[in-house]
Request: fold
Amino acid sequence: MDPRQLLGELRAAALALGVEVRAAPFTARGSSAGGLCRVRGRSVIVLDASASSIEQAAALAEALASYDLAPARLAREALDFVETARNRAAHHRASPSTTGGPPRVATLPLPKPGLRSTRSRRSDK
Reply:
């Protein structure tokens, strides 16, 4: 299956499951082309619009791996792709850390000093 067709198939599956899919160019280029998040209580999959179709499809498949895909009626190739992502995620959860400690979790950078408060410091009297 062509990567664009695969991406379209996975997008349709997400919509059938009630999960919104958004694509926007990410400002920071990292190791991920997107993922699942919650926005105002709703599940949303955000994809990096500047990533290739196969990278977006991989991120979408990884996000969909936690869902029951039976209602989505995916094509066999797309279902296999999601199943591979599901197995990869299970393998990463099961494999011990190289240091023997807890698994490493990616952390977000802390906000810069002075940007935490959104209230005005001026007192309007």
